[in-house]
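Quarterly update from the structural biology core.
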Amino acid sequence: MSTAPWTWRERGADPPIDFGPAHLDAIRALKVGFEEVENGAACVELPANSEAPEDFERAVDLFLNHATLDRFAGRVRNPYVGPDDPDLDLLQDTPDSEIRELFASGVDFDFEASPAELALFAEADLRSSGIDPKRPFGSESVGRDVKRIIDPERTLNRKQFRAARAHAESRMMVLLQFFVQNAELEPGSYARVDHEWQRLGSDGPETDMLGSDDWYWNIARDFNLQNRIFSDTLFHLHHLVWEGRIDAPYADLVQQLRLHDLYEDFTEPHFEGTTLEHALAAYDAFGLRIFAVIAVRALNATARFTEALELFVAVGRADAPPEEADLGSVSYPNLGMLEAGIARYGSGDMDADGFQRWIAGQHATNTGRSPYPFVLDMLNLQSMVDVDDPALGWHIRAACAQIAVMRGPYRPGED
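Predicted structure, tokenized:
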């Protein structure tokens, strides 16, 4: 199956960071300590913003979570200069006095991590400040987390475990210091994707190549909610239109009600970029009509009818035989017929009388096949529980709501 890069970050995500030599040099100079808040954990002391490279806090978070180190063994360059170091207060809460005194001496030292220490460091929740003091190794039950790793057979009594835990958590300072001094991270642009740091290529995350199904569901996360909001809004609006309380061209209503950006910006979207951009990119990548139909919905809903019709013509759906559409079903052929009617009328390709004939099933393109009974059925359908494809159901309901509004007010003598 063909794939294409998914290039949109989640909405609200931090912008990419360009990690370079200045970041690495500053990271090499970091001092470790022990943070006393919450449950306590090994930490790194970040320099003041004025003394640090741009975006340094995020660079440290990236480095601690994405840099690699072949072996935790070697010479630790002690960042403290001895008893006169002004930052010794960073060490005062170290649980194991032996480790505290080792750093306070200011002397470089050799070390090699034990298997248990490596396992504990691998479980550490690393942040820009070091290990998260609230949930250092996965949960707030720190004693249980540490015991699972350093005493899996439960051979230590309570006093022995207390001492072993203090030593193990303090040794994380040594591993953390060695890591910032020796781990490697390739310079380049990085960004968080699904809460994980990834290196970016020219088209986005190098590993984020998705198939058409994945693209569809990523788009649908926003698109389905947009359709529900749109159809519910127009469902109530169409009553006012039907009663003649509102009588204005649909394009004017879009501007007055600020619907022009509904498919671009709405409450809590998942991804940056618009639904239209996503759908058009997916159509370019995969050539599947479903992505064109999603784009047409965004265009029709926002009164960009000429663009919608041009896209429909380009993919060969505008002139699809009406007999393809089962007017009583939630199906893509039916949806295509509905969207084509909206686009033709809105763009001026079909005049107002032609649109009314189309709704009544008396137009040359759909003689004897009125979509209006189905439109009313969909408007009265408040739940998609019984629909095989709820996403398609909300898509069609949005199109039906728009048709009901564009039909205009009730006129005596109409059926």
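The CA atoms of residues 187 and 376 lie 59 Å apart.
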